[in-house]
Amino acid sequence: MSMQQSRRAVLACVCLSVWAVAAPTGAARGQTAPKVPDGVVFERGITYSDVEGRGLKLDLARPKEGAGPFPAVVCIHGGGFRAGSREGHDGLCIALAERGYVAVTVTYRLAPQHPFPAALHDVKAAVRWLRAHASEYKVDPARIGTTGDSAGGNLAQMLGVTGGVKSLEGDGGYPEQSSRVACVVNVYGPTDLTKSYGKSVDAAEVLPLYLGGDGTQARKRHIEASPLYWVNPDAAPTLCLHGTNDKYVAYEQAIWIVDRLLAAGVEAELITLPGAGHGFRGNDAAAARKALLAYFDEHLKPNK
């Protein structure tokens, strides 16, 4: 794959439903619940981990019919590591279930009460939970992908590059299971937090809450929380979706991670949405949704 191909722009207008990532902080809890089609089973509020006396929950959508095993996707909400809710990706999970996936959207601990690496520990626990319950939900444990937007994109990308790093697993349960993922779709998630300052309208406010200090005071944590510094030849294939007019996460963040993955011999691609900001809307949201679904179909479905 050439670098020019990896940075192709999405220009076509496609007629699909708009992706529910229209705001940097994710969807509000008060949003209207998505309609559940007849062919989908949707379960809310399943506890996947118990940490510090708190039960962390996920919502799960799966096909009603079929023997499986089905591929699966773990969806991670955005919100600057300090806000947002799993419900923002309920609609995406249902859309994935309609296409033959088991999809979950997860709650994770938020800053500043729970700084890095708590959120990463939680999403890794969610992947392990899904593998531990693969038989119950008809999941193929070898075909689990992940996606996230903004802060969720950072966490999804971290899953893709730290699958073999035991020090980042946490103690959220099911230690016998792997937290590796088969592929990643990173939707405008930051990849080098050390270079976010001065390039983001809220990095100076958000990152110290998540990392316990600014880029000087807590530089080591900024590096540890940046997927760019964990890239290795065993990293998961990755698709990045990013707009050129993103004021929250600079477009260059996507270029850097794709270049680093390709240099390590890992399949990686960047789809650029010219003029799009943070939180895709309208045709940009539809094009991004189309690309995400196509990528998961290509990488997680057999005979593709």
Offer a few descriptive terms.
304 residues, alpha/beta, Rossmann fold, eight-stranded mixed β-sheet, 9 helices, globular, disordered N terminus
Please characterize this protein's 3D structure.
This protein is of the alpha/beta class. The chain has one domain (3-300): 3-Layer(aba) Sandwich (Rossmann fold). Helix content is 29%, strand content 20%. It has helices spanning 3-6, 90-98, 118-132, 134-137, 151-161, 203-211, 219-224, 252-263, 282-300, and strands at residues 40-51, 54-63, 70-76, 102-106, 139-149, 183-187, 238-243, 268-273. The relative contact order is 0.17. The model is unreliable at 1-29 (pLDDT under 50).
Structure summary:
Helices cover 29% and strands 20% of the residues.
Rounded to the nearest angstrom, the distance between the terminal CA atoms is 18 Å
The neighbouring-strand order within the major sheet is 1-2-4-3-5-6-7-8
Q: Which structural category fits the helices and strands?
A: alpha/beta
Provide the CATH topology: Rossmann fold
What Rg is obtained from the alpha carbons, in whole angstroms?
18 Å
What is the CATH superfamily label?
Alpha/Beta hydrolase fold, catalytic domain
The level of helicity is: 25-40%
Q: How many E-type strands?
A: 8
Shape estimate: globular
Helix tally equals 9
Based on the coordinates given, report the CATH architecture.
Answer: 3-Layer(aba) Sandwich
β-strand amount: 15-25%
